[in-house]
Specification:
The chain is an alpha+beta fold. It is 20% helix and 27% strand. The structure holds 2-acetamido-2-deoxy-beta-D-glucopyranose (NAG).
């Protein structure tokens, strides 16, 4: 009997955790919940504005035909279209980005804590990759050409690099209205206030002055 109860508990746990793994943003309880950006209410996501005040523009954005400005240290630019740009995306669990890459442009290693990403190359070619979690840290990498599609699983560190001879353009869809971005280098070396150099030196197994030098770049 005790074993049966235990097995049942284990099965329920497996069910609930596999359900958790499938979920992206929580599912809808209504047709839409257009973000009321003026509201002082704080909830997980954004509060809904009154349905009578919802207009077609709440579901609209124009501008992804425009190239991003890649004149920066990384040589890349991300134009995001998430709930910040389209209030109607609130609670819908999807968003988009356009990414432009100069030649040698890099979208540096980063993660989206709340989102899987599916990316397609519209112009040029990209070397892309992601790394699995500990302890394996297996690196999956591939060169993508125009029309190719690649997936970066939720939460994993990933990047895109343009080794091609022309600029590159990609569009990516993300499984959250607000995927979030953690850029590894910025989070570790550019934290404000800084993470102590002895902490980073020990983590990266390098001298403290090497860490100080890298921190000074941010
Ligand atoms: C692109 O960004 C650079 C660096 O910030 C700036 O000097 C330049 O004017 C920008 N170009 C356009 C077209 O906005």
């Amino acid at each position: 009997m005790a074993i049966r109860v235990l097995l049942l508990a284990a099965a329920l746990l497996a069910l609930s955790s596999s359900h958790g793994a499938i979920a992206s943003d929580p599912s809808l309880l209504q047709d839409f919940c257009v973000a009321d950006k003026m509201s002082q209410v704080r909830v997980n996501g954004l509060p809904c504005k009154a349905a009578k005040d919802v207009v077609v523009e709440d579901f609209f954005f124009s501008g992804l035909h425009m190239p991003g400005n890649t004149t920066n240290k990384q040589g890349s630019a991300v134009t995001a279209v998430n709930v910040a740009q389209i209030g109607g995306l609130n609670t819908l669990g999807v968003s988009l980005v356009r990414i432009d890459y100069a030649t040698n442009g890099l979208n540096p290693p980063h993660t989206h804590p709340r989102s899987t990403e599916i990316l397609t190359v519209l112009e040029g070619s990209l070397e892309v990759g992601f790394v699995t979690s500990n302890p394996d840290n297996k690196h999956f990498t591939k060169v993508l050409n125009k029309g190719d599609v690649f997936v970066f699983p939720k939460g994993l560190v990933h990047y895109q690099f343009n080794r091609g001879t022309t600029h590159a353009i990609a569009i990516a869809a993300l499984s959250s209205q607000n995927p979030g971005v953690i850029t590894m280098a910025n989070a570790v070396f550019g934290a404000k206030p800084s993470i102590s150099d002895d902490v980073i030196a020990k983590a990266f197994q390098v001298e403290k002055n090497t860490v100080d030098w890298i921190q000074a770049q941010f």
